Amino acid sequence: MDHDGTKNGFACAALKKMNDMLQIPIVASGGAGSVQHFIDVFEYTDVSAALAASVFHFKEIEIMDLKRSIMARGIPMRV
Fold first, then answer.
1. Which residues have a Cβ under 8 Å from the Cβ of 46 and sit 6 or more positions away?
2. Mean pLDDT, residues 45-52
3. Quick one: three-class SS letters along the chain?
4. C-beta contacts of 32-35 below 8 A and 24+ residues apart
5. Whole-angstrom Cα distance, residue 3 to residue 63?
6. Which of the listed residues 5, 39, 46, 75 has the most CB atoms within 10 Å of its CB?
7. 40 CB-contact burial (10 Å; exposed 0-12 / middle 13-18 / buried 19+)
8. Among 2, 58, 62, which residue's Cα sits nearest to residue 29?
9. How many domains, the chain?
10. pTM of the full predicted structure?
11. How far is residue 1's CA from residue 59's CA, in Å, rounded to a whole number?
12. Does 2 map to a domain?
């Protein structure tokens, strides 16, 4: 929650710790402000998904640009 709305990135350390402790899918939420933030969360943690709102609503990140960038890093995703 502390990262929600900050656009400073996901709480990767906390997400990694939760994901290592739990056997359920984890969805990263709160903090996304750039394409790199999505890449970071998928490369540093094993979360199942990541979401954001305002960066898409205000067209700060185009969804297809994000998908292309993530796929270019070899991170599997649905298109």
1. 16, 19, 20, 26
2. 95
3. CCCCCCCCCCCHHHHHHHHHHCCCCCEEECCCCCHHHHHHHHHHCCCCEEECCHHHHCCCCCHHHHHHHHHHCCCCCCC
4. 32/7, 32/61, 33/6, 33/7, 33/8, 33/9, 33/60, 34/7, 34/9, 34/61, 35/61, 35/65, 35/66, 35/69, 35/70
5. 21
6. 39
7. middle
8. 2
9. 1
10. 0.91
11. 23
12. no
Q: Do 70 and 42 meet the contact criterion of CB atoms below 8 Å apart?
A: yes
The pLDDT of residue 23 is 95
Residue 41 makes CB contacts below 8 A (sequence gap 6+) with 9, 10, 12, 15, 28, 47, 50
In a domain, 54, yes or no: yes
Range of the domain at 37: 12-72
| Token pair in block for residue 23 | 């056997």
